[in-house]
Amino acid sequence: MDNKVDYPRKQHVDTGRTTTQQQQQQQQQGSSKVSSLLREWDRGNKAARIRMLNTFVAQNQGGKTYVDLETDFSLCASLFLARQTTWLKLTHQYILEFLEDGGMLLVLDVLGQHFAEEDRAEALRLLHTISVASSKYAEMICESRGVRAMAECLAQSHLDSTQEAALVLLESLARGAPRYQTQVYNRLLALMTSSCPEAQLRVVRTLCTVQSELKNHPSIVEPLLKMLGSLRSEVQDAAIGLILDLGPEPRPALLTGLVALLMPSQQGAKLDQIPE
């Protein structure tokens, strides 16, 4: 009688079923991730949404296609993109309605001296938000004599926060409204002769940024020479730094002015001639 050996049978593995289960599990995890993302977007404020947009751009660079995004977002990428476009559309719609209803003139009126400095600082921040939303809005601010109002507000201000907000806005307008760059530049030059040293330092810092996109006008020479005559060493240092950054246009007038500063005044010469 033959002895039969029973070998262990190989277990049959249903690879198709296993693959399907894995796909379902991945889809569930992806759907949960997308739901969490959408919930975070819906509950988030402006800062949170901007952070999410920056993260989204950083993670999806490198030529990803729509199909790739749909795969990453478990076929729900369109939901996230729809939220982005709707948010941007509503933001611009609200700003446009605000401007059309006279909101611009109302905010510019707040920059007047009869309002508290804290209110003026908030008005400047609101105008900055409007200016960075669109170059069209930035030009509307300039067309409403906004540059003049901001410069006057800065000249009359005594708070650092108000001065800083005004200069940030002026720099934003110089970048966002190219047609009005010269107007902003001239207002900044006028502010260089401010009686407040802190304001002078802030103005020079802003000028260093703005003038990189403009040709230096000879009118910058006179306020620069006045700053060199300041009793504050930090103001003098700021003026010297700005001189070193100047282009070739104002150099002849600047050289003439510097030579005049180094020459003794007539009154000083007369005093030197008095015998001891």
Quaternary structure: single chain
Low-confidence stretches: 268-276
For the largest beta-sheet, the strand count, sense and barrel status come to:
none
Helix count? 15
Secondary-structure-based class equals mainly alpha
What would you report as the Rg, rounded to the nearest angstrom?
32 Å
- Cα separation of the termini: 146 Å
- The best one-word shape is elongated
What does this structure look like?
The structure is a single chain. The chain is an all-alpha fold and 276 residues long. Helix content is 73%, strand content 0%. It contains 15 helices and no strands. The longest helix is centred in the first third of the chain and has 29 residues. The C terminus is likely disordered.
What is the compact description of this entry?
This protein is 73% helix and 0% strand. The protein has helices spanning 15-43, 46-59, 66-72, 77-100, 103-110, 117-133, 135-143, 146-156, 160-176, 181-191, 197-210, 221-228, 233-245, 251-262, 266-273. The longest helix is centred in the N-terminal third of the chain and has 29 residues, at 15-43.
Topology diagram in text:
Elements: H1 15-43, H2 46-59, H3 66-72, H4 77-100, H5 103-110, H6 117-133, H7 135-143, H8 146-156, H9 160-176, H10 181-191, H11 197-210, H12 221-228, H13 233-245, H14 251-262, H15 266-273
Helix pairs in contact: 1-4, 5-6, 6-7, 6-9, 8-9, 8-10, 9-10, 9-11, 10-11, 11-13, 12-13
